[in-house]
Write a structure and sequence with these properties.
about 290 residues, Rossmann fold, 6-stranded mixed beta sheet, about 10% strand, binds adenosine-5'-triphosphate, binds magnesium ion, Polyphosphate_phosphotransfera
Length: about 290
């Protein structure tokens, strides 16, 4: 399938209305769930094995979305394909006091994966140009107020671009997914959090109050997609009204990223290879 259509890899003028949250790329759910998805999950596991063994590079997956767009389910259904040894999921919640005592990238830097590993960010540094912007949180944070001016978001976009370029230049790929869901679909999902007892635990009042800021959030997303998409750290806008499709599309993109990285199992140096026969005979004589 064509994934380019969902990718933003340069400065642009992203508009939400140009992306259809109900898109399914003409695919059928059954075929995707029974055939295409299992194939991708197996391929992800295989390539991750080589990435881990190679121990040179890593991947940072950034997941951003409005509430109830399906980040948690996506992690559960797609990234469980990966070996837990070599994968870390980090949720970024409201910053703690300690986190607020630092610059906004501090907590993100601490969550970066090691070489050979894959770090999955459930929310990320992008919250600092989203919720922080929509709710004007800088006014109540410890950042010196003389540094908060009209250009702060532009500067943050630049800082984030530089940070992600830095990661790329150090062998860490950054892949960013925005799960794009419609406001109607969100309403349905929040209602089911209320109606279904097994989903009640997921419901928070803030899910409803945040909905009032839907328009502001969409604008903030448009601005960040327009300004932080780069060739080396592109954003993908994932249609998310159909969960099965968003999960499949993410798996498809992730497989392509891994294939493009083409990780290889390290080969034993010739000298060590020549000793293998010796170690075989040692083991065979052992009882
Ligand atoms: P779900 O989709 O299941 O509700 P979630 O990711 O929304 O999962 P929550 O614990 O409900 O998890 O929410 C985390 C909250 O933390 C979000 O409202 C988010 O905006 C907020 N948050 C994350 N980073 C920051 C930040 N830097 N400043 C302020 N709030 C933040
Ligand atoms: Mg929430």
């Amino acid at each position: 399938m064509k994934i380019e259509k969902y990718k933003i890899d340069r400065k642009c003028n992203a508009r939400m209305r140009d992306y259809d949250p109900s898109d399914k790329a003409g695919l059928k759910r059954k075929e995707v769930e029974n055939e295409l998805m299992p194939k991708n999950l197996a391929r992800m596991a295989e390539l991750q094995g080589a990435l881990y063994a190679e121990n040179r590079r890593g991947i940072v997956v950034v997941l951003q979305a409005m509430d109830a767009a399906g980040k948690d389910g996506l992690i559960k259904h797609v990234f469980t394909a990966l070996n837990p040894q070599g994968t870390q999921v980090t949720p970024f919640k409201q910053p703690t006091e300690e986190e607020l005592d630092h610059d906004y990238l501090w907590r993100v830097v601490q969550a970066l994966p090691r070489r050979g590993n894959i770090g999955i960010f459930n929310r990320s540094h992008y919250e600092d140009v989203l919720v922080t912007r929509v709710h004007n949180l800088l006014a109540v944070q410890q950042i010196p107020q003389n540094l908060v001016d009209d250009h702060i978001w532009e500067r943050r976009f630049e800082e984030i671009r530089n940070f992600e370029a830095y990661l790329h230049h150090n062998g860490f790929r950054v892949v960013k997914f925005f799960l794009h869901m419609s406001k109607d679909e969100q309403k349905k999902r929040l209602l089911s959090r209320i109606d279904r007892e097994d989903k009640n635990w997921k419901f928070t009042e803030s899910d409803v109050s945040e909905r009032e800021y839907w328009g502001e959030y969409q604008k903030a997303y448009e601005d960040l997609l327009s300004n932080t998409s780069t060739e080396n750290a592109p954003w993908y806008v994932i249609p998310a009204n159909h969960k099965w499709f968003s999960r499949y599309l993410v798996s498809e993109i992730f497989v392509r990223v891994l294939e493009d990285m083409d990780p290889k199992y390290p080969e034993l140096p010739e000298e060590e290879k020549s000793h293998l026969a010796h170690w075989r005979s040692v083991l065979e004589q052992d009882d």
